[in-house]
Amino acid sequence: MTDRPRAGKSSPAVYPQPASTSSSMSPLIYQEALRAKEPKLVNVVIDTNVYLSGIIFGGTPGKVLELAKDKKIVVFTSPSILLEVADKLNKKFHWNEEKVETTLKAISKITEVIEPNIKLKAVKEDSSDNKVLECAVTANANYVVTGDKHLLSLKEFEGTRIVTPSEFLRAIKSFK
């Protein structure tokens, strides 16, 4: 797992220094010691197909969403990914607008919605897949979790591993 700072965090957390700390330990060193004890959360971008499979069928994609819900991973998404989820739920699965809106609100509660700051053309076969990579690069994600063959064929992009839901669950299990 790559040790990366979380996107959207502009300043480090401030930790109070207890009175019992020896005067030889500077506040900065004390803060670093505390941070070393904090669990490192994995930054993830979940592709539309994983959201859909997890929401509708559960299974392994559902377990990935549960990790996000339980705050065991940090999931980033973008407005364009959410729009694609809404579109697929409506057109492919014939969900009504109210059910789609409720689902998008639920996804937004377990994710950090960011606006990608770059445009990529890394996936030539299906240019719509680039929105996932744009989100991952902007979020400085450790993983993209997808079932999309075009993205999976990349295996890695700018330091972000691209894996299936099963591969992701195996990978994070090894860090516990």
Put the structure in a nutshell.
The chain has 176 residues and is of the alpha/beta class.
Characteristics:
single chain, 176 residues, alpha/beta, Rossmann fold, 8 helices, 6 strands, disordered N terminus
Would you mind describing this structure in some detail?
The chain has 176 residues and is of the alpha/beta class. The chain has a single domain (40-173), classed as 5'-nuclease (Rossmann fold), CATH 3.40.50. Helices cover 46% and strands 12% of the residues. It has eight helices and six strands. Strands 3-2-1-4-6-5 form a six-stranded mixed β-sheet, sandwiched between helices. β5 (156-157) and β6 form a beta hairpin. The protein starts with 26 loop residues before the first helix and ends with a helix.
Could you name the CATH homologous superfamily?
Answer: 5'-nuclease
Total domains: 1
- Whole-Å distance between the termini? 11 Å
- What's the rounded overall pLDDT mean? 83
The global form is: globular
How are strands sequenced across the largest beta sheet? Answer: 3-2-1-4-6-5
Portion of residues in beta strands equals 5-15%
Topology (elements, then pairings):
Layout: H1 27-37, E1 42-46, H2 48-56, H3 59-69, E2 73-77, H4 79-91, H5 97-110, E3 111-113, H6 130-139, E4 143-145, H7 149-152, E5 156-157, E6 160-163, H8 165-173
Parallel strand pairs: 1-2, 1-4, 2-3, 4-6
Antiparallel strand pairs: 5-6
Helix pairs in contact: 2-3, 2-4, 3-8, 4-5
